Amino acid sequence: MADDSAIFDAARAEAYSTPIDKIDVALEERFVDDTIWPFFERLRREDPVHYCADSPFGAYWSVTTFDDIVTVETNHQVFSSDKRIGIFDPPEDDDFQMPMFIAMDPPKHDQQRKTISPIVAHESLVGFAPLIRERAGKILDELPLNEPFDWVDRVSVELTLQMLAPLFGFPFEERRKLMFWTDLATTDMSDQMTQEEARAELMGCAFYFKNLWDQRVTEPPSNDLISMLARGEATKDMPLMEFLGNILLLIVGGNDTTRNSITGGLLALNDHPDQAAKLRANPALLDSAVPEMIRWQTPVAHMRRTATADFVLGGKTIKAGDKVVMWYVSGNRDETAIERAYEFIVDRARPRQHTAFGFGIHRCFGMRLAEMQLRIVWEEILKRFPRIDIVAEPVRLKSCFLRSYRELMVSIPERVAV
Ligand code: HEM
73 in ligand 1 pocket by Cβ < 6 Å? Predict the structure, then answer.
């Protein structure tokens, strides 16, 4: 593996020599080579509520400490989610809008979220567990030995899709469609298709799910998201674009995040052999190791709010109408709130003290499901593979919103029969 210390040293030097008002932590290149950390470190120390007047995403505030993120998140009257939850603003005149409940304020947000809440109730999760274990086992048993392969595609993507499909009652053999639609909604596909083509594909997604919806309403109610949306008072009459928006929210919410936690978890264990050995010796530590992997990875780097009134935070006055970005990725390295935040520790005393799921009324809807999925997946991985070798540097997505991996080449020397 390459020695990247020169790149990291250069990033640190740049982070501390740039005039502070010129720092733009949304620069996507720094997420690609993973050199963003010293920039956040400096902001947390010297200017925790930071204004960037000029960036490719326009002017924005950065909220970088754990406590300030909680303050913004739990004050949804002032910090609105209406229409926008990422740093990027589409053109004002763009009429291709997909309303979704993550980008709504109460009361509509609360009503729509409540409609599907039974899917993440304890009994529902317990019901999904055996299927997840069976599918994870099958995928892991089919992996090649002593032959490099892409862990992202063969394990993280495949496992996540196989866990996601039953949540929608989605046809198993068509599950790769879910991945394609996720990519359409979250990544720049301009090298592969025009914007019109991408939008036509998204409408294809809407009609595909509308078909499932039409089937479900003729069947008895079942424990899947489409059946719940089709029957819920707050959702049964949604316009098509709002239906599409909510479907994409649930696909992306349940897909990219868990997937990148699986890849990020493997990288973290590989980079910390002492912690990996501790976990292998005592897999019961997954209770704390799973939330620690989620903190370490922080698959959603930020969420954005728009101020509806002037608000003083950290001595700075945020004005009504300003764009406010909460950097979970920074909150999760805040040493004033998380002990030894820069260390990956599988048996942390308070592993759920992290920002990766957000807080307040929008706190991740699927967090218990995600933790359960990851726990089962890691139980099955640890049982089978005493070693998983990473044979090339990971390839990261160019995004300051999702901390996502495109490729991670690995080789597995041996499988233990289970
Ligand atoms: C490790 C895995 C996951 C991470 C790190 C994650 C992270 C997040 C974050 C940061 C938010 C926004 C929180 C806020 O604004 O306060 C969120 C919201 C959401 N997540 Fe997750 N998520 C994960 C897994 C899932 C899964 C498996 C689902 C399942 C469907 C899901 C569905 C959602 C939904 C629907 C929302 C919107 C909630 C609302 O607006 O009320 N997430 N997630």
Answer: yes
